[in-house]
Amino acid sequence: MGAEGEVKTVCVTGASGFIGSWLTMRLLEQGYTVRATVRDPGDERKVKHLVELPNANTHLTLWKSDLSVPGSFDDAIHGCSGVFHVATPMDFDSPDPENEVIKPTVDGVLDIMKACAKARTVRRIVFTSSAGTVDAEEHPKPIYDENNWSDLEFIQRVKMTGWMYFVSKILAEKEAWKFAKENDLDFISIIPTLVVGPFIMQSMPPSLITALSLITGRASKPTGNKPHYSIIEQGHFVHLDDLCMSHIFLFEHPNAEGRYICNSDDINIYELAELLEEKYPKYEIPSRFEGIDRGELKKVKFSSEKLKKLGFEFKYGLEEMFRGAVDTCREKGLIPLSSKKGKDEGEEKLL
């Protein structure tokens, strides 16, 4: 994207989160100067993992910004050559999804796009979208690509787990594309599937609550984590590091344009349960799922061919991403060491 030797200053929104913090780490490693936006730079608990990153002392600054506050991203974006818009509300239990999830997501992306237009220095915006913008519809297709969009009417009628998040990302991405075309902004959207892997934030990432629901379900409640099972019934997964490196790859590639699905593995809930049962014998993994008939599950694929044809290579598979996620969660005390009674939790290390 720039000339060799040029100072590369970029803004990462939502930098303290699951994706944002790992992306910030990778950008710092590659010599970028990062302006990291967070809601409260003074909250040491929420920014400690950022300020302790290698090169943070010289190449990282924290900026107070909030999706619900108009103009709050202007200063952070002014002077940047690129913006990675990762920030997004993810509250599946919100009592007021319209005002707490959907509105701030849509208003926030437009505010950031306006800030980019005003700055006149931003050469490319990379937006983190969601697989929920692509495949939420009544009759699933065997394969999805960047031309597909979810059915808003179906989502709002059925109100499946995470429906408000899907709606927010669909509306936000469409508004961003409209604004980008009207204002001649170079805009790229990345569509990740369920993101799994090791992480540096201290709390449990929302996507891992879903991804690890087969491990945590029986330990937490008799009925398991049934709402999350609907998301991984036809599961599509990508390693956090692959996703973040794809952000940088697409930001830097001169020929990148449009939408890009970022997905490395397609696997249904029964296949995932078998994998986890084999790799993590200390956990009580369910083997049957009410209302999900294995014989009726047809293969559904998210195609990353467009991203691969541009030259991007995925480095990690399912085993690596789940190993990284489980090990990190255990180290941080976010999941139990075992969910089977009578097991000596210190007896063996999970693979």
From TrEMBL:
Domain of life: Eukaryota
Top-level EC class as recorded in UniProt: oxidoreductase
Catalytic activity, as annotated: (2S)-flavan-4-ol + NADP(+) = (2S)-flavanone + NADPH + H(+); a (2R,3S,4S)-leucoanthocyanidin + NADP(+) = a (2R,3R)-dihydroflavonol + NADPH + H(+)
GO molecular function, one term: dihydroflavanol 4-reductase activity
Pfam families for this protein: Epimerase
SUPFAM superfamilies according to UniProt: NAD(P)-binding Rossmann-fold domains
Domain named NAD-dependent epimerase/dehydratase: residues: 10-258
Family matches, as InterPro entries: Epimerase_deHydtase, NAD(P)-bd_dom_sf, NAD(P)_dehydrat-like
Enzyme Commission designation: 1.1.1.219, 1.1.1.234
GO biological process: anthocyanin-containing compound biosynthetic process
Keywords: Flavonoid biosynthesis, NADP, Oxidoreductase
Record family assignment: Belongs to the NAD(P)-dependent epimerase/dehydratase family. Dihydroflavonol-4-reductase subfamily.
Stated name of the protein: Flavanone 4-reductase
